[in-house]
Every structure is written in C-alpha cells, then in structure tokens.
Design a protein that fits this description.
single chain; 353 residues; mainly alpha; DNA polymerase, domain 1; hpI Integrase, Chain A; 3 domains; three-stranded antiparallel sheet; 15 helices; 6 strands; 51% helix; elongated; SAM-like_dom; DNA-binding; DNA binding; Site-specific recombinase XerD
Length: 353
C-alpha cells in the first residue's frame, strides 16, 4: 500500500523537510525545499514554522493522491522531468550534427526569455506563456528562425504529453509560427563541374559534399554511411533525422565514382565530424571556384532536388527519395526552377506555324 510521510532533518541552517515516499517495496526521499527554524525565538518564527508545516502536509496529501492515481514509477518520472530544461536536454542528446546545434540554440533563446533561470517547470508553461514566447521570438528573430526554434519548444511539449509528463499541452491552443517562403541556395550542374575541378583544403569534405549533391543525403546520413550499407550499388540506411523506416537508394554513376575514389579499410565512408569550420571551409572552396553564393552543406540537398526537377523528375518520386513526409515540402523545389515554366510554355504546339 502506498504511503507518504514527512521527514525532518536537522542541520546548521535549520530543519529541512522532505517527503518519504513508499509504494510496493519502492522508496524514495523527495526534498520539499522547506526549511524551518531550529529553535524559534519569537512568535513570528513560531508562526512561520506552523505555516510551513501546514504547507508540507498539503504537499504530502497531494503526493499521496498522485501516487494512488498514477503509481510510483509514473510519479517518479514526472518528478525527475518536471523541469522543462532538464527534460529537453535529454531530447537534445539524441540529436546529432547541425540539428543538435539548432536544438541547443533554441534552448538558449528560451533561457533568455526565462530571464536565464535554470528552472522552468512544466506547470509554468500555460497558454499566456506560450503566446508570449512566440511574440518574443518573432520580435527578436527573422520569421523562419523563430519558426525553427519555436517548433523545438513545441516538440518538447508534444513529447512530454506523449509520455504523460504533462496533462495539459498549450500546443493544442496556440498555433505554430508559419514558415515564410525563403530563397533556397543551390548549385547548377555547370557550377558543380567547376567545383569538381577546384581544390578544397579538406578533400574528404569536398567528396562528401559532391556525394550529397548527387544523392540528396543529409550531412547526418552521409557521415554515418558505412561500406556495409552499400550492396549492389544500392544504399540501405535509416535516416538519422527522423529515425524512420529503412530507405533504399540506388547510386547513380557520379555517386559511385566519388566513393570508388576513396575506398579505404575504414568502416565509415566519410570520416568527418561536424564543427563550426565545416561550412567555412565549404564557402572558401566555393569562392575559390569563382562562385559567389552562400553555400552550406545542406545546400547539397537543395542542389540534388533542383537538379532532379530540372531534368524531369516526378515530384512524388522525388518526395520519396528525399524522405519528405509532406509533398508541400518537396513542392518548394518546383517553385525554384523558373526554367521549367519556360519549358512548359515552349512545349505548347503552335497555332499559326
């Protein structure tokens, strides 16, 4: 049978109160962060002790109700993860590369909004809080950056609801920040030919980038790729970003040539680690080639998609190759290629020919 009692521990600075929680052979001690006067000297200190003991008794009764309703394991899970930042940090640890950096930056913005306090209890996150944080991000950042960081905040709340850490989710009442149309930088086939002939101070990075341009794989997937993942010119991999089902991707001739040049005994094909200098090295290489575009590693994925559309790929097939869950995401690339619109107009038969 579940039981909760109040424990008192005397210390130099006073009497510290804690809850002694017991259920089915499992026991834990939870501090109430309440300290009483050791030897109250006057009526004011005595009144304080009485009021704090009353508060402790109220918390004890609430904990017993929780224990009987949810069980020991669920209550302990809630207690350990009741701080949003602690819970979010566990999620961040599961991310890799640039995605993890985005998550960390998102948490930094929330810390600033929370006046740099280390604790943000889930109970504090209500509809006004979510609305206020949304306005804060839109005021401080460009819309797409605000969208990305607010989506991480929403993702933590959704996960907490899924695990029954919270029973009220503000996301059900506060809308997300919509993403604005933005310029997705990409390279043309001609520019890729120039880059292939241009020296890069990190040759393995050059190979990985070009490989991504001809496969559409993300940085997180390219750098996790092993020789065992390739059989009969086909890659079998599980996308690191979504951790969804295995995907199968046939290598085209260019992609095969790139990895054939670097065949080594290492298990990983591209032995690279993510750092702030990765995109700087890429940008230096691109500028050395006489191409003045802002290029990051993710632009390789944009390049693959725009090339596929340019050379006649079906947008629904491209959606599957890129692993998009929504065709709207893939449709963005179709909007980029104005030349396809010109081709469409030119293919209409003449009336007065």
């Amino acid at each position: 049978m579940a039981s909760v009692s109040i424990r008192e521990r005397k210390g130099k600075k006073g009497i510290h109160l804690a809850l002694d929680i017991y259920d089915g052979g499992k026991r834990s001690l939870q501090s109430l962060k309440i300290t009483l006067y050791n030897n109250p000297k006057d009526n004011e200190e005595k009144a304080y002790n009485r009021e704090m003991r009353k508060q402790a008794k109220k918390l004890k009764n609430e904990k017993l109700v929780e224990l009987n309703r949810f069980g020991y394991d669920r209550v302990m899970l809630f207690n350990s993860k009741s701080n949003f930042f602690n819970y979010a940090e566990e999620i961040v640890k599961t991310k890799i590369g640039s995605n993890q950096e985005t998550w960390r930056t998102a948490l930094q913005h929330l810390h600033k909004f929370n006046n740099n306090r280390k604790t943000l209890n889930f109970s504090q996150i209500d509809i006004p809080f979510a609305e206020s944080y949304k306005r804060y991000l839109l005021k401080k950042l460009a819309q797409n950056s605000a969208c990305a960081y607010y989506n991480r905040f929403r993702a933590v709340l959704n996960q907490a609801e899924k695990e029954h850490i919270i029973h009220f989710n503000p996301n059900n009442h506060v809308s997300a920040i919509p993403q604005a149309d933005s310029q997705r930088e990409y390279l043309t086939h001609e520019e890729l030919q120039i880059l292939a002939q241009t020296e890069c101070k990190k040759p393995k990075l050059k190979q990985a980038f070009l490989f991504s341009c001809y496969t559409g794989l993300r940085w997180s997937d390219v750098t996790k790729l092993t020789w065992n993942d390739i059989k009969d010119d086909t890659i079998k991999f599980r996308p690191q970003k979504t951790k969804s089902k295995f995907m199968y991707l046939k290598l085209n001739k260019t992609a095969k040539q790139i990895i054939e040049e670097i065949r080594e005994d290492n298990s990983y094909i591209f032995r690279l680690s993510y750092g702030n200098n990765i995109n700087l090295i890429l940008q230096e290489w691109v500028m050395r080639a006489g191409i003045f575009k802002h290029i990051t590693f993710h632009c390789a994925r944009h390049t693959f998609a725009t090339m596929a559309i340019t050379y006649g790929a079906d947008i629904y097939v491209l959606k599957e190759v890129l692993g998009h869950s929504d065709i709207k995401t893939t449709s963005i690339y179709a909007k980029i290629i104005d030349s396809r619109k010109d081709q469409l107009m030119d293919c209409i038969p003449e009336l007065f020919g």
